[in-house]
Amino acid sequence: MGTRVRERLTGAAPGLIVELGWAGVSTRVLAERAGVTPGLVHYHFSSLQALLSEAAIGALTRLVDDLGALLEQAKSPEEAVEGMLTALSEYSGSDPMSLLVTETFLATTRDAELRGAVGEVLADFRARLAAWFAEHGVADPEATAAVLAATVDGLLLHRALLPEPEAAATVLRRLVAVRS
Amino acid sequence: MGTRVRERLTGAAPGLIVELGWAGVSTRVLAERAGVTPGLVHYHFSSLQALLSEAAIGALTRLVDDLGALLEQAKSPEEAVEGMLTALSEYSGSDPMSLLVTETFLATTRDAELRGAVGEVLADFRARLAAWFAEHGVADPEATAAVLAATVDGLLLHRALLPEPEAAATVLRRLVAVRS
DNA sequence: AAGTGCCTTGGGCACTCGTCCAAAAACGGT
DNA sequence: ACCGTTTTTGGACGAGTGCCCAAGGCACTT
User: Fold this and answer.
1) Which of A29, A125, A158 to mutate to test the interface with B (most CBs of B within 10 A)?
2) Residue A93 has what pLDDT?
3) Least packed by Cβ within 10 Å: which of A57, A101, A107, B34?
4) Which pLDDT score, from 0 to 100, does residue B33 have?
């Protein structure tokens, strides 16, 4: 089954990207982690970059879907912010998911194709947030969505270095002020 | 003058980190950019990592000082947010400074010594912000500082992928609500 | 039994990497 | 002019890289 090998490789990639950095993942460590022979990497994928891109975009899409589903269940803007924060707090410490997001963002700087794909995922996330905000009477829904998405990423990034204060949620709630 | 060579190397490093990624900077391209022979890298620095760390921490410290000085001149919280945003907007597009910050943050994941040094710089920035907020009557100054610092980083990161709406500044101003 | 695909293996290719080092050069004091 | 120190040079070392490919294994049809 060739598909099994593909899945094993794309499944092993995100963890290694986080551990070693995007540029630190080599065909051989990736194959070893996936329990597969190094030669298979270039049989199933056109290049190592293509493999990493496919794996990262898959993980990002899944994350956005999860956060989106979580959003649907919230009743109020405050509850939405709260829910996203607690969901992300499970990723605390040197969270794999946030590091993967950041690594992927940086990789887009040097790969135009990847940049396009990740841009779509981010735009999709912003659009979902904005739609939900508009429905629930939050002022400036698009801008709020953009700022909130950026803040979430920034907090995840900073968290690895310095824990954020407890009151961060309180402050964040100010962002989603309901239109007066 | 040995010091001239040191400066040339640490001066060339940040640009290359942004262009090629932290892991993509090699002794030879760095030496070439600095107009220096490759062998000199390991004469003046104990390792390539040490060179990159020293250069990055220097650049970060300078950035925090600049933003801190800008903060001192602001009269109101709104003006402070405005000033920081416009200062950062000069870095628009694929801004070198924000990418350097992010690259350095990620590098801390795999270098404990660097993590400590960058953590200090970030803590210093948060402390300056918080002190200024407390003086000007912003509610929850520490938490606001943490969230704002994260948001600034996140916006810079996202900006390379997707331009943020004009109204982002309006939304950000909500963050620095004055204590009621 | 022979043939036909796809999948897998293990090694090889040309290259870059960080680091080191002997020898050459430049410098400064006498 | 000589000498000791610091700086610079250019090349070498072993290790690791992405990618490629001839050879074999395997499940299937004919």
Assistant:
1) A158
2) 46
3) A57
4) 98
pLDDT for residue B133 is more than 60 = yes
**Length of chain B in terms of residues written:** 180
**Burial class of A32 by CB neighbour count within 10 A (0 to 12, 13 to 18, 19+):** middle
Q: Which fold has domain A55-175?
A: Tetracycline Repressor; domain 2 (1.10.357)
Instruction: State the SS3 of A77-106.
Output: HHHHHHHHHHHHHCCCCCCHHHHHHHHHHH
The reported pTM is: 0.89
**Is 1.10.357.10 the CATH classification of the domain at B54-175?**
yes
A96: its two tokens:
């794999």
As a whole number, the mean pLDDT across chain A is 88
| Bases along strand D below 7 A from a protein CB | 6-11, 16-22
Q: Closest to B106 (Cβ–Cβ): which among A21, A146, A166? A: A21
Residue type for position A145: A
Quote the CA–CA distance of B146 and A32 in Å, as a whole number: 40
Measure, in angstroms, how far nucleotide D20 C1' is from residue A46 CA. 12
Q: Angle B152-B155-B160 (CA atoms, 0-180°, nearest 5)?
A: 135
Domain ranges, ordered by start, for chain A: 55-175
- The string of pLDDT tens digits covering residues A36-60 is 999 999 999 999 999 999 999 999 9
Spatial CB neighbours of B85, under 8 Å, sequence gap ≥ 6: B168, B169, B172
Per-residue pLDDT averaged across B121-125, rounded? 92
CB B153 within 8 A of CB A158: yes
Closest nucleotide to B39 by C1' from CA: D9
Asked whether the predicted pLDDT for residue B2 surpasses 60, the reply is: no
